[in-house]
Write a structure and sequence with these properties.
Length: about 325
């Protein structure tokens, strides 16, 4: 006898993600379940990255999977199909710890393994990886910041004397705009590496064997440290942000240094990347938050960005 069960999973803002469970009965009556994930993504145009909706299909149909080991990998893909306006993937189900279940030591391990992965690719420069046609490019970070910082709903808000945020938070954003060109000039001196670009806790699965990363649709070329900025600041509890900042940055650089020399630069720029990617985005979440609890959370996040500012000059060993 065969049982078939379908369960919706979190995610799928532009499609749907479902867990498919197929259970066979052994001769002695023991249930033998097999699980896989079906991911459907609708065609859409992400700003400055219009083909990202089909990127995972393209990556799975290349030699991309050969770059990984059990220590850091993406899920196996059993079948991939694409049509004019829709992509379908049938993927391995990952049984691991993810999301808010990740502990500080798991965060640190994820940072370390990512450093090893990016350092290895940076040192070896696989030819096929350099030639992949559908990946995001190094301008992604700058376009992302400019899209938010040029939005008057946010730029004007932090400059409005009636802004509900504390003055020192508004000044942090104003100072960010004044220094953005300087920050980008320094960031562009960092090594260009292959980034996941959505490296936050719900896309990270910690298993006994290693780290499994899902959702590679924004992946591509970027600067060293972009993914670690996401790990530290993307929807992270403000209570843990400083601890992750202090643990994950050194772990990342240790991993990278196993394969490649870290840059001879006084700043690793991760704090600046955090501000460029998440400061205005958090202001948006605060301004349009629907409950006092939401607003308090986003204000606490902005406050934490302010509090760790002096730690943004972590030296590269």
């Amino acid at each position: 006898m065969t049982d078939f069960n379908v369960q919706g999973l979190e995610g799928g803002t532009i499609g749907a993600v479902r867990l498919l469970t197929i259970t066979e009965q052994a001769a002695d009556g023991t249930p033998l379940p097999f699980r896989l994930v079906h991911k459907k993504t609708a065609k859409f145009a992400r700003p400055n990255d219009p083909h990202s909706w089909r990127r995972e299909y393209d990556l799975y149909n290349s030699a991309f999977r050969t770059l990984f080991t059990d220590r850091l990998r993406l899920p196996a893909c059993y079948k991939a199909e694409i049509f004019d306006d829709e992509m379908h993937l049938w993927l391995e189900y990952i049984d691991g710890t993810t999301g808010e279940g990740l502990t500080p030591s798991m965060y640190e391990r994820a940072a370390y393994e990512l450093g090893r992965f990016q350092g290895k690719l940076y040192a070896e420069k696989p030819a096929f990886l350099q030639q992949l046609p559908n990946v995001s490019n190094t301008d992604y970070l700058q376009h992302f910041y400019q899209r938010y910082s040029n939005w008057h709903e946010l730029r004007g808000y932090v400059r409005d004397t009636n802004c509900a945020l504390p003055p020192h938070i508004c000044q942090m954003l104003i100072q960010l705009d004044a220094q953005a060109d300087e920050f980008f000039a320094r960031i562009k001196r960092l090594p260009v590496v292959f980034n996941h670009r959505d490296f936050w806790n719900t896309n990270i699965f910690h298993t006994p064997e290693g780290i499994v990363l899902i959702d590679w649709d924004t992946a591509g070329w970027g600067y060293m440290g972009e993914d670690i900025a996401s790990l530290i600041a993307d929807d992270v509890s403000p209570a843990h942000m400083l601890e992750y900042f202090e643990k994950c940055i050194p772990a990342y650089y240790r991993g990278f240094a196993e394969y490649a020399t870290t840059p001879n630069i006084a700043k690793n720029c991760i704090y600046e990347i955090i501000l460029l990617m998440y400061a205005y985005r958090t202001v948006e979440a605060y301004k349009f938050g629907e409950t006092p609890e939401e607003k308090a959370l986003h204000q606490a996040t902005l406050q934490k960005f302010h509090d760790i500012q002096h730690k943004g000059t972590v030296l590269v060993a």
